Amino acid sequence: MRFALIAAALLAATGAAAAVQPFPPVFRTQMVDANGTKIYVRSGGKGPAVVMLHGFGGTGDMWAPIAAKLVQDHTVIVPDLRGMGLSAHPDTGYTKKNEALDVAAVLDHLKVEKVDLVTHDIGNMVGYAFAAQYPDRVTRWVVIDAPLPGIGNWDSITRSPLLWHFNFRGPDVERLVAGRERIYLDRFWNELSANPKAIDEATRQHYAALYVRPRAMHDSFEQFGAFGQDAIDNKTLLAAGKLSMPILAVGAEKFFGPGQADEMRFVGSNVTGAIVPVSGHWIMDENPGATTTLVLEFLAK
Asked: pTM above 0.90?
């Protein structure tokens, strides 16, 4: 309850709570000791378990519309990644292989063995590291609109001018962004969306309030700073073999598109592609209805 009150206070400070759908009351929140840090976790419901992982620019809050549907017949588990949202801010550990251990520890704490995965952006990278290290724990995986470091066309993808932020970090960069976090985040919402107006002012204020917290932006930069080691780790994980669980690779029509399925076929042997229409990268803001339908239909199979 204390952590829910902290989150509510952050939102009240911005006057922005209305635009970001809250999780239903059936969800509880807690800080879980996991792999040497503390992970903020929302969980609720009964039935087959689903883990939902967010990326940069958001937090686990992004998944509330889908979680509200899934919780009717699933156990839904939504953490904030290490150093992001309301999770703790350790100095190290931002490789995705290590963050996958955070997820495993959360599941162990909740006494959950097998899960479906639903992931977006950096959450995809943590999801792959989890599925590759614990293939027997993943039943199905919905992976949305971001590539995997070191895999497939990664080197050419990272040369896109839109992805300059992958190498934007360091003490002077943090000085530039300090006090201007909202401007920095607006760049992502404006340039990586199909329609910037779909990310409304209240939603922007909601997430900006979370990213302005102490160390939040520093640790977000650490997520990107680990990509070099993530690429090495992913190549090692892939050398052990492709994933065999069913994978739904979802690309946003106006961003990663069919390339999402192309990339996932490098790591999975049972990949189906899908597109979120009329959407850029921010699928849960730009077209939440279509995204929710794709996820629910795949997990019902």
From this structure: yes
